[in-house]
Design goal:
This protein is an alpha+beta fold. The chain has a single domain, classed as Aminopeptidase. It contains six helices and five strands, in the order βαααββαβαβα. Strands 1-2-3-4-5 form a five-stranded mixed β-sheet, sandwiched between helices.
Amino acid sequence: MNFRKATKADVPHIVRMLANDPLGALREDLKHFSIYEKAFELISKDEHQELMVAESDDGEVIGTFHLTFIQYLTHQGSIRAQIESVRVREDHRGKGIGEKMFTWAIQRAKDKGANLVQLTSDKKRPDAIRFYERLGFVASHEGFKLFI
């Protein structure tokens, strides 16, 4: 397996993975890829963001995750790594790919000088929550969102 930054050509593969679950199917729009391409352009130009793909040995995109590095004043001016949009292609789930993606992402965060890796997970995703807990993540805070 290989990890690399996503390219514009990867956007359709990534969006299909994002839409391929009950929650993603409600919020993603597979008919209008131009909105995702515009977002990709902004992400790819930001040195603090890394949209990653996992490739199989034969070059197929089989997973994705989005890393954002956030500089803080708290915690003695440390950097936090935020992991979002973690997906493994449906036909490759249960093969340890998610764990390999997190191992890579955590090492990348360390390499960038982060002292904390954080993520959020929808409460409607109990399997994902158990997976994150198994990896050592702790539900230490209560999260809030305001859609505007």
